[in-house]
Specification:
289 residues; UDP-N-acetylmuramoyl-L-alanine:D-glutamate ligase; 25% strand
Length: 289
Amino acid sequence: MNGLFVGLTTLDLIYLTDHFPHSNEKIVALNETIAAGGPATNAAITFKYFGHQATLFSVIGNHPISQLICAELEDYYISVYDLNPYRTNPPPTSSIIVQKQTGERAVISINATKFQTKVNKLDLDLLQDIDIILIDGHQMAASQIICQEAKRLKIPIVMDGGSWKSGFEKVLPYVDYAICSDNFYPPNCSSSQEVFNYLQSMKIPHIAITKGEDPIEYWTERSNGTIEISSINAVDTLGAGDVFHGAFCHFILQYDFIDSLAKSSQVASVACQYFGTRQWMSKVQLKNF
């Protein structure tokens, strides 16, 4: 199976500490790792972990930091379609602190706010071989063009709704599966029910809201309910949502919506028991899923 992942790519500098630093405090990390990051990027690598082909649509550019990112993507055999390959400014970086006792993380990043690409035309021929598409909202212009063509070709579209981003309203009508965090609030929405109502008004047939360790809430045209989350001792929750979305793109090609949510939650729970966004892949065998 082939998946297309459209959105953000960063370089993540990740530190494990006993506690979050206080003002003017210097602390020594217990562990550290550097990895390519971003919702679409982590989801693509997760999808590849399950044995599929993954193509990443993103802005990486031509900068020494870009080369670090590209090297890791090559290691994971991710195909890259760079939306701005001649950009010489550095790609976005994220500085991340993970608290050892709880697995909670603090992140500082500029995301893709300064890396939006104005797209007039894309090579859409590659969609002929794509089985599923994920968008994270960080490259909205490209996402809109791709989603319009994907809808015509009847390719299912998954939306990673980490937070509301301007322009989502132009993409949502094409989405088949909206999977949002509890930080995703469209305009004039302040509760989960209002989010469900808003997305339903966009005619999205499958909607879910993940809430960390609390149950997932879901709605479809035929049913609604909740899915319990496995109780774990979290080591690192960084990228858990990205792993969830990448796993969902794998499972939804084989199972129904509710089963795919449950199975994706299990994968994300496993990932949270290891430091960084990749360690779990080398520690856990596919047969466990």
